[in-house]
Structure formats: structure tokens, C-alpha cells
Amino acid sequence: MKKAFYIFLLLLVLSGCKSKTSATSQTALKSASDEPAYGDTLIEGTIGEPSILIPMLAGDSASHNIAGIIFNGLVKYDTDLSVIGDLAESWDISHDGLVITFHLRKGVKWADGVEFTADDVMFGYKTIIDEKTPTAYSEDFRQVRKAEVLDKYTFRVTYEKPFAPALTSWGNLVVLPKHLLEGKDITKSELARNPVGMGPYKLNKWTSGQELALDAYQDYFEGRPYINHYIYRVIPDSATMFLELQAGGIDMMGLTPIQYTKQTETDFFKSNFQKFRYPAFAYTYMGLNLKHPFFKDKQVRQAIAYAIDKSEIVDVVLFGLGSPSTGPYVPNTWPYNPNVKKYEYNPEKAMQFLKEAGWKDTDGDGILDRDGKPFEFTILTNMGNTLRMNTATIIQWRLAKVGIKVEIRALEWSTFINEFIDKRCFQAVILGWSIGLDPDQFDIWHSSKTKEKEFNFVSYRNPEVDELLDRGRRTFDITERKKAYFRIQEILADELPYIFLYVPDATPIVQARFRGIKPSPTGITYNLPKWYVPKKLQRHTLEP
Amino acid sequence: MNGSSLRNVFWRRFKKNRLAVAGGVIVLVLFFVAIFAPLISPYDPNDIDRKHVLEAPGIKHPFGTDDLGRDILSRMIWGARISLSVGFVAVGIATIIGMIAGALAGYYGGWADRIIMRFIDIMLTIPTFFLILAVIAFIGAGIWNIMIVIGITSWMGVARLVRAEFLSIKQREYVLAARAVGASDFRIIFRHIMINSMSPVLVSAILGIAGAVLVESALSFLGIGIQPPTPSWGNILTLGKDNIEIAWWLSVYPGLAILITVLGYNLLGEGIRDSIDPRLWDTERR
Amino acid sequence: MITYLIKRLLEMIPTLFGITLLSFFIIHLAPGKPTDIFTELNPKITPEARERLEKLYSLDKPILVQYGMWLKKIVRLDFGASFSSDRRSVMEKIWDNRKPLLERRLFVTFMINLLSMIIIFLIAIPIGISSATHQHSLYDKITTTTVFIGFAMPSFWLALLLMMFFGVYLDWLPVSQLKSMNYDSLTLSGKIWDLAKHLILPIFVSAFGGLAADSRYMRSSMLEVIRQDYVTVARAKGLPERAVIYKHALRNALLPIITLLGLSVPGLIGGSVIFENIFGIPGMGQLFYMSVMTRDYPTVMGVLTIGAMLTLLGNLMADLGYMLADPRIRAK
After folding, report:
1. I want to staple B203 with a disulfide (CB 3.0 to 4.6 A). Which of B66, B273, C166, C182 is the partner?
2. Is the dihedral of CA A84, A87, A90, A96 positive or negative?
3. Given an 8 Å threshold on Cβ–Cβ distance, is A393 in contact with B229?
4. Confidence of residue A20 (pLDDT cuts 50, 70, 90)
């Protein structure tokens, strides 16, 4: 299951529509008949159905995917991961970093023809911090001390303290059509299933359990999208979805590692589809409960790291589509520190470390023990995630070889979180964090966040890390921030509150007739409105 | 007719029904495989091998390997143990609950009967699979949870059978005689009536085992069956489903195993029923 | 007869009440709260925000109060608002009046189950009769094995094999879902044809699995009847065998089947979880599975209750059919 946090940040990218790299060089290479043309339909397959299309109320990735092409934000990420304007043309940040003034684009229209103004942003902001709004995203906006509408196209926010993630938080969560929602209960609004946005596509028809049909928004402020219709088809079974891809029922889906490496290597797929691959903004880890007597000991944690072959996991579970991870950031992003302690697979060293920590097999049953207690623990993970289950299976098998007995339990998601994670009732877990483009991870590592239901659930405490986390979020100076986050990674790699496992690759596949797709570090769908199908290849000829 | 001649009739009739005999042989073979799994399994079912991932059936791995390079034949053999124990324990629970409920209702009658029958009505009205699905999803998919939940949602048939049997034999001479000499209720229930109602219960238990194997595979398909790495036919088949086009062996073998097992139990159960029930015996004409 | 019917209807009320009570408590026994799904493992949500969510959904009230509140509403067929983030009412998810029939989940599931029941009936009865009259023949063995294979084959596996063969390899039938993308622009006959093409595989899978129970039951019922005295008498009178079977025996052998049809409703509804998921059909089974996985209690309860109501309806219809067919009851 994907984390909403990650999705939110990814959405800033998805909702972006302007491609700065020039399209001319690429079109020049193609024959005249391959020129961009309006028309055709893109059908994407999805396992989960969206539930609500108001971004701030949505909790699942499917909802955010669709809401992301219906609503734009004030800012978004560019393909080089820098922040650029979206609905905001530009912005000024005061010298102390406390005041941000957004200058909004003029003449942007909501899909119902009403002009988009600063009042809409103000309305969205007020709604998200309203106690009565059931949203999970209000935290960043509670840092705001004052918000003002200076004029129709100028919106200003003032922060209590410098807050580095401030700018990027102004994505599409806080832009709502005031003229349709004012004075109404947002939780009961018609807009939840029939939204009015200003993004490149607008919802035409939502058939529950079947599909969401979207039409291109003719007056989209960055120009009408080439593809006339975008259909999001709900197919709950992964095998069925893959068959639909072959039968022509869908044009685009995310592949599993096995589908990417084995099932799509046929001539049929090579001539009919284009595959993409880029690192996802996420990592998978094994978290160890630092309050548990086994894992209090740093040497034991390091022994476990040596006993696990990360490259084996990447090879077998991900079929090589990913990379071993060494810390909570993704390689090739600015906060990522490549020079931290790595733990190459070394079972001898693992056993030696365990021995030094007092673990010996005294009773000869093949399991290490200390003070009469055998080294046995349970790894918990969530149900239905084959990749994590396979990872746990490999770890179980590897640890058995150094004399540690592991049980695996898969739990249904909410039981897992509520009864085990929240209550700190676990020994080890395999989970993933989806990470934002901003490196602030205060909630995950700070020692003040170890209370029940908070996110430092492994109970990690390190005063130096605490200090670095605070320094990192209270300055805008990127070299300062970089220094702080580099040091944090060094400490984490040494102390190993998590055994960092891997960063998976995202592997989407798209039907070959779609052109104009330019993969970037942020994925492929950021320039969806610029995708097109050459006239003679168009398959679905319904006119808008 | 005395006991031994009844038994002879049963055997004569059972042996004539070749499908039932085939079913019996299948069930026996499965028992053998499940009991001797540690001896006949060629590899450790959980041994991972990164160099032999998704290998087609060959000399080294007669049924091929899965996505972690584990030997499918070994996993199938150990899976037989798991899948069959799910069937047995679930049916065991169902049979015990069913016999007790049926006996209480049938023997005592009156309000006990009314309450139990109303409860059975309720249980029969709720789509059982919905109930199993909800409970398993909420309490977690451990092997014991699955056995227990299947058990406590499938006892109603047995209860009805036992109750009906009770109603019909309660008034028979030997029961009345037992009561006349002052035997306790408990003794009457267990010594006399229970033994007589064994045969239909046995048939329904055999069919129930087949049903439980299918329920487990359906739960696996929905991701809440026996959880890997523990092998069950249901979860091997579900894994195979996603790789059906590149690794047929991952779904064909477990699929066939489920099919043959369920078929075997059904044929056996039906055969026994046909052979026991005098109403279905051939007339002289045929 | 009317009084009998009324009596049966009245008897259903406590049953229905029992069903709601039972399922409500079973569902609330389980740990975990629906708000967990909403917050997932989102580092940007605070504990206060979580509690707010829980209050909003009134999960903080005692369980009996929650049940009372819920029961008061379902008397009016109002199952409350779903816990999913759209917070639509459960009834709207199951049966939305504003949508065409094919987009109402209850209708979709009902239609598929009814069609598959009819097909089961039409195939299972003749198979049952003929294998009874030809007991132990080769024909009996082949049909026995075939119907049991249908029962024994995990339905999702069968569905997948059929989808691969007819949907991808031969490309004759659509792989999944209920209608094509251009459905709305089709003529009426085109729509029916489109729907039929989409329904062939799901109904086949559903019916193939259900064949065994009915045909086997029919077979043993028939076996029993043709050994009865009156059939022997009819034979002795010199009536042709066909007349004996179809005029005298069949009528009586069919009676228990009617009850069985009523009883098979919950099984069919339960099976719809599997085939609706694999075929991507938007019905009650799919909705139930989704809401179970997200702990959307109101929807789970709503679907369970409506499933039970459908079964009760099926039983009532069976009773009615039995009454019409059986002169002994009709006379009462």
C-alpha cells in the first residue's frame, strides 16, 4: 500500500503540465505523419477504485492519481526536482523565510467557467485547518501563523518559525472552488464524486466499480491536451489486468517486477508497448523495535545487517529492478549521502558479532541463545504485498543460517497498524516509507515522536539526530540542510534502527501508439497533456 | 439383517461403484503423501535458490521452481499436509458442534429445539463465504483462525442430520428399552443414538473436507488464506495465477491437485452414501 | 394458504433480527479501526487528527449504543454512511436510483445469480434424471465426473484459463467487466449483444460450479422416487417407461429440488465475491470484499443484511413454489 504522503508530493508532479524541454527537437526526428494530433483515448488500469476526488479528503493513491489531473496546485516539481510555479506564476520569500507571497496566474478558469482567484486558495486553506474537516494533511498548514488575500491574484502566508517544507506544501491540497463550496459541508458535497477543477482533464462520468471517464478540458490554461479522453478502469485482479493489457482493453498499467522482466519480453510486447523504468520515491526496510532486549544492542543489529544479502533480495524479489538502500533517501537526490557504512553480506562477521554480544548455541539445537533464551523473533508485514512477503521469506531463510529463528506473520493493514505498530507490540516489521521530495523526516526519527500512534515507532533516540532534524527544517539554505541530512544518514547507517533494504523501481508500460512521453526522475505522467497519438494510429475515434 | 451382513452388503455395493473406489484410492494416496511428507519430499520446501528462479519442470525439479527458486514438488507435498489438515480440523470442529447441537435439539425437543433450529436458520441465511471472509480479514489469516472459522460456519448441515436421525430413532424399541431400565440421558444419547447416526454424518464430513479445501483456495485468491511461506495448495495456485503465462507449472500442478482431491472426496462420499442408503439400492430390475 | 404465507413472513422477522445482531457483533469483535486506513502510515497526521476522525465516525461510543443507532436506521433501509472517504450512504452504493440498472450493484449481482440459477436448473435437472434412470452406466459416470470437476475446480483458476483462451488467444470474448467502452453509443440490440458477450464467461464459471449440488440431488431424489410403490404400480400397469418417469416420478422428485434452490442462494451470493473480483464486475461481492479490507463496517453490515434478505426471499419463493407444486400442502 502506498503512503498518502508520497502521493501528495508526487501529485505536485503529476498535476504539472508544462514540459520545459522543447518538443521541437523530438518531433523533428519523426516523420510528418507522427505529428501531434488531437484525439483518441488513453485507458489506464487500476486495482483500486478512487473513493473521493477532493484532494484534501482523499486517503488512497487511486483517488490522488485522478484528483491530481483534475486539480492543479500553486507550485509543482519540475523534471529536475526543483520547485516551479503552477497556478502561481511566481512567488517572493522574505529574507527571514517567514513570509511567502504567491502571485497567481491571471485568467485561469475553473471547469465551470468561473475565474480562479486568491479567494479560492484562502478558502482551501481555511477548510484544511478547520477542525471539522476530516483530513490527514492539516499538519503543514498549522505551521502558518497568518494567511491573507492581498488582491485578486496575490496570496500571502506568514509562518511562526522558518519552515523549510513550507513552499512545497502549497500543492493541490488547498485549492478549492469557493463559489461552489462556500457555506456547505465539504464532507457531504456533490463535488466529492463530481469535482470541478481546473486541471487538464475533467470528470465526465464515474461508473462505480467499473471506470472513471475523463474528458480533456478545452480551456486548460496550458493548452488543450492532445488526448481527448482519459479512462481509469478498475480491475481488481492483477492477472486479469495483465490479460486486458494484451487484449487491448487497457493502454497503460504499472508492471510488477516479474511482468517487467519476464512476461513482457516477447515480440508481441516489444512491438506493441513501450516500457519505462525509474526509481520510485520510496524505500523498503526492516524496522527493529529498539525497546526489545534483543535489539537494544547495536552490535546485534549490525550482525543482522551482515547476515542479510541485500543484493540477493534485489535480484530475486525485484528481479534486479531496484537497488539496495543505505538510508532513508533515494539515490541521486540532493539529500542522499552515498558515503555511509554499507553492510556487505558476511555471515562469518555476523556470527562473530553475535558471539561478541553473548549469543551462543549452548544447547546444540541450531538456534543461538543467551541466558537460556533462544534468539527467536517474528517479522510482521502487511497482507497482500507479494514483494514484502518474499523479502521476509528470504530474510527468514538467511537468518536461520546464522542461528536466528524467524517467524513471519502477515496482518491485515489496519490491525497491523492499530494493534501492533501503534501499541509498539512487535519485534521486527517489514514496511516501506514513501518519501517526499523534501527531506524533512522529523516525524520519523525525532525522539519526541515516539508516543503511541506516532511515527517513530521503533523508539529511536539520539540527541544529535534530534538536533540535526530541527536544524534541517528551520533553514532554507540548501548547503546547510544538506550537511544536516548527510550527517543524519551517517548516524543511521551506523546505529541501524532500521535495516534499510531496497529502493524499488517504478515500471509502467504504455501502448506504443502514444507519443510524447518523456521519462524524468519524477516519472512519466507529469506531461500527460502533451502525450498524443498520431492521426493514423488513433484507435478510439469518439469526438469530445 | 444383522451387523455383519449389513457390512457385507455395503462392501459389495461399494466395490461395484468404480468411481467411489477411485475416490477412495485418491484419498488414501493423499493421506500417504501428507503423513510421509518429510520422507518423500525431495527438497526442503522453503529452500530459496536465486540461481534457479522460475525454472520449468526438469530432472532436477520435476514440477519446476517458483519465483524464489523453491522446489514446487516439495512445496506441493508439504502443502498436502496443510491443505488436508485445514479440511480435517475444520470438519472436525463442524462435526462436533453439529452433533452436539443436533443431539440437544433432537433429544430434548421443546424450547432447546426451537432455539437451536432458529439459530441454524440464521446461520443458513447469511452467505457463509461472506461471513468467513469478514471474520478472517478482521482477526487475521492464521492457519488456526482459518480452520476454526470454517468449522464454526459449516456445522449446520450436520446438526440437521443428527437431529433428524434422533427424531426418527428416538421412538425405536431399543432406545425406549434403554430408558425403561433407567439409563441416563447422556448414556442414551452417546451409546445408542449417536452410533446409529454416524453414517450420514461420516458422509457429510467427507464432503465437508472437500469443501474446506476449496474455501481455503478461495481465501488464498483473495489474499487471506494460509499465508506464505507456509505452503498450501491455495497459495501456490494463487502465486501461479499471476505468472500463468510464463510459468504454467506454478498453477497447473496445484490446480490439478485441488481438483483431484476434491473430486476424490466427493466420489468417495457419494459412493459411501449410495452404498449405505437402502432407499437407493438397485431394484431387481436393473 | 395465505395464512401459511403470512406465518412464514412473520417467522422471518426474528431471523432477520438475529442476523443483524450476529453479524454486528462478529464484526465489532475484531480489533482495528476504519480510520487506520485513512491515515495509513502517513507521517503528516497527528494523534489529535486521528482522534478527530474517530469522533466524527462515532466509534468512541459503546458498542451497544452503536448497534442501537444502526438498527434504528435499517428499519428504514438506511444503512448509514460508508466509512470510505467519499462517505456516500451505503444504500446509494448498493442501489443508486439515479443510475441505470446495470450500474446498481445489487441488480448486477442479482441478475448474474438469477441467470446462473436458471441455467443450473435447466442443465442439472435433465442430467440428474438421466443419470438416475441410467444408474451405474457409462453415461452416469461421465456426467458424475463432469459435474464434480465443475465443483472441484477453483473458480478463479477456471475463470483465468477461460479468459486467456477466449479473451486473449481466440479474441472472441471480452476479458473482463460488464460492458464495452462504447456501450452508451450502441443501439438496443447492440447493447444486449454486448452485455451477453460480457456475461458468457462469468455465468459459465458460476453455473459450472453450482451444477454438482443440484444434479446430484436430483439424481438421488429421482433414484428414491423410482423405487417407490406407486412407480412400480405404474410400471406394472404397463405404462411406457417415459410416461412413468416424466409423468409420475418427475413431479415428486422435483419437490425437494425446489427447496434446494432456495437454499443455494447464499452459496451463489458468496461465490460472487470470487468471480466479481476476477472478472472486474461491479457487484455486491466486489463491494463486500473492498469494504471488508478497508473495515468499512456500515457497508459490510449493509451487504451482509441485504445478502441475508435475498436468501430469505429465495426461501420464501421456494416455499411458494413448493406449495404450488405439492397438492398436499395446497389443500391445507
Report:
1. B273
2. negative
3. yes
4. very low
Query: Which residue of B54, B138, B223 is in closest CB contact with A262?
Result: B54
| Whole-angstrom distance, CA of residue A137 vs CA of residue C274 | 36
A390 in the same domain as A339: yes
Q: How would you classify residue B7: left for phi > 0, otherwise alpha for psi between -120 and 50, otherwise beta? A: alpha
- Using the 3D structure, point to which of A188, A217, A237 is the last residue of a domain: A188
CB pairs below 8 Å between A and C: how many? Answer: 167
The answer to whether residue A14 sits within a structural domain is no
Of C44, C86, C279, the CB nearest to A193: C86
A368 belongs to a structural domain = yes
CATH number for the domain that contains residue B56: 1.10.3720.10
Domain extent listing, chain C: 12-78, 105-331
A497, A516: one domain: no
Which CATH number belongs to the domain containing residue A167 in this structure? 3.90.76.10
In this complex, which of A131, A237, A441 lies closest to C280 when CB atoms are compared?
A237
* Contact: C43, A209; criterion CB under 8 Å: no
pLDDT at C59: 64
Residue B23 in domain = no
Residue among B51, B246, B249, B251 with most chain A CBs within 10 A, to mutate: B246
Among partner residues C22, C269, C293, which is closest to B122 by beta-carbon distance? C22
ipTM of the prediction: 0.86
pLDDT in tens, B12-28: 888 888 889 999 999 99
Q: C-alpha cell of A74? A: 500553486
Residue keyed to cell 519505462: A276
Alpha-carbon distance B87 to B62, whole Å?
A: 27
- Percent above pLDDT 70 for chain A: 92
Location of C-alpha cell 457429510: B204
What CATH number is attached to the domain comprising A213? 3.40.190.10
**Number of independent structural domains in chain B:** 1
Give the residue on A whose Cα is nearest the Cα of C36: A414
**A345 part of contact set with chain B, CB < 8 Å:** no
- Where do runs of H (alpha helix) occur along chain C? 2-29, 35-39, 47-56, 63-74, 90-94, 105-133, 138-152, 155-162, 188-225, 229-236, 241-243, 250-263, 265-279, 284-293, 297-325, 327-331
> What is the span of the domain harbouring residue A486?
282-505
The mean pLDDT of A226-231, rounded to a whole number, is 94
Asked if B126's CB is within 8 angstroms of C266's CB, the reply is yes
Count of structural domains, chain A: 3
Is residue B11 situated within a structural domain?
A: no
Query: B138–A412: do the CB atoms touch at under 8 Å?
Result: yes
With respect to residue A183, please indicate whether it lies within any of the assigned structural domains. Answer: yes
Is CATH 3.40.50.1240 the classification given to domain C105-331? no
Considering only CB atoms, B46 lies closest to which of A263, A397, A410, namely: A397
Per-residue pLDDT tens over the stretch B185-209: 667 766 666 776 777 888 889 989 9
**Continuous H helices in A222-283:** 238-247, 257-258, 267-272
Q: Do B218 and C156 touch (CB under 8 A)?
A: yes
Query: What are the tens digits of pLDDT across the range A155-178?
Result: 999 999 888 888 888 988 889 999
- Residue B41's domain spans which residues? 32-267
Does A58 or A405 have the greater pLDDT score?
A405
Contacts of C165 in chain B (CB under 8 A): none
B96 touches C at CB < 8 Å: no
- Inter-chain touch B19–C145, beta carbons under 8 Å: yes
Strands A211-216 and A229-234: antiparallel
